[in-house]
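Moderator note: this is an archived Q&A kept for reference. The question asked for a predicted structure of one protein chain; the sequence and the answer are reproduced below.
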Amino acid sequence: MSDKQVISTSDAPQNDAPYSQGILTDGLLFVSGQGPADPDTGEHVEGGIDAQTEQTLENLQSIVESAGGSLDNIVKVTVYLDDIDDYDAVNDVYGEYLDSEPPARVCIEAGRLPGDIQVEIEAFARVD
C-alpha cells in the first residue's frame, strides 16, 4: 500500500470544504480544481477571464511547487469554463504558463462553477 501526502500551501487559497489542495502518492500529484481566488484575501480577482485565468494558474503553480515540482511536471489538465466563448482568451494566458511541452488537456463548458467564477483548473503532475 502506498503512502499519500496531503499538499497544502498558504500561497494558494485555503478552503473549509472537505478536500485537499493536492494529494501526492507514488510520485503522482493530484491537484484539486483551482479557481481565481486571491490566497491573501480569499476573494475572487476582478478583471474578467484573463485575470481569473492568471490567478487560477498562479494558485495551481503554488500547489505544484509546494509538492516539489514545477509547471513542467504537469502531465494532464482539465479546464472548466462557464462560457466556452472564453476558450481563446484562456488559451492566450494558459500558453504563457504551459507553453513548452504542454500537458494533455481537456477544456469543457461546465455551465455554472462554484462562486460564479469563470474558470476552474485541475491538474495531475509527476513529481519525483
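Archived answer notes: The first helix runs from residue 48 to 66.
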